[in-house]
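*** Backbone structure tokens ***
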Amino acid sequence: MTTIHKRHLLIALAALSAAAFFSCGGEDVAAPEKKWEIDRDFRRGPVDLRIAVSRKELSIADRVELLIETRAREGYVTKLPRFGDKLHEFGIVDYRSSSPRLVGDGTVVTSRTYELEPFLSGEYIIPPMTVTFHEEGDTTLHYLESDTIRVIVTSILPADQAELKIREITGPAELPAGYGKTLLIGAAILAVAAAMAFLFWKRFRRMKEIAIRAVPAHEKALALLERLLAEGLVEEKRYAEFTARVSDILRSYIEDRFGLRAPERTTEEFLAEAGGGLDVDMEKKSILERFLVHCDLVKFAALEPTAEDVRKTFETCRDFIGATKREEVREKAA
């Protein structure tokens, strides 16, 4: 084979290889779509409505995502529900809205995703969502509605502690016969037990302190917040008392988490010490300062908080615990 023929053969092989490469590589490989535990579609004429929720069930310390998406045939315009519509039972942590985009089959897709957090445990209802659509050049509006979605939010307390109730005090019991002799025997047993308890007191106290420290600070704080909610102070509109209790829980958490003596100090003293001892960024310190000052106004200046103030106070406390909890986990893993 001549040199010229070899050169022509090599050029042909290179061309075939390039064609094969571009024919395979030109198609985008779609990334796997996020899995939604609730995923429902509704259709009316040229428009599809999709409502998807990332979790059917979550705890009060978790968050859930909600997707609202419309797919309309080209030539039709859709409008999503207004921001936050039907979501008043949740707190909106974050959201993402996408501009209308044209996909391969000539369909126009518009979507909005919310990141939501619950306020109390129980069943949460997302009522039917309604989108409107019309044909370009036509002002006649058409409506497409979803159905009701239910999400269960569970308590983070153990099942036997989720509903703590105080029982009525029983009446006095009559003393049995031979009570004096029984009392002497009981006193002797009590004296022996007291002597044994004294011998092991220091060891027992040390073991108890170790056991308490073994529970992560954020778990103790979240459990206290959950127990506080179960007392019903918010429902009884005892907002000032609820705010003071939330402040105490956050101060105790800071002491456990960062080793700062937050509960015994005034806010001014604590913030002065926290300048160097609280290992969080400036934004979190600023949020914490506003939180503590607001709680002091409620405690000592008779400021009457509103229901919205109480909600923000609770969410600020929980979010601070959640943010610093993640830092704590990273430190343990390091």
The domain at 38-155 is CATH 2.60.40.10 (Immunoglobulin-like).
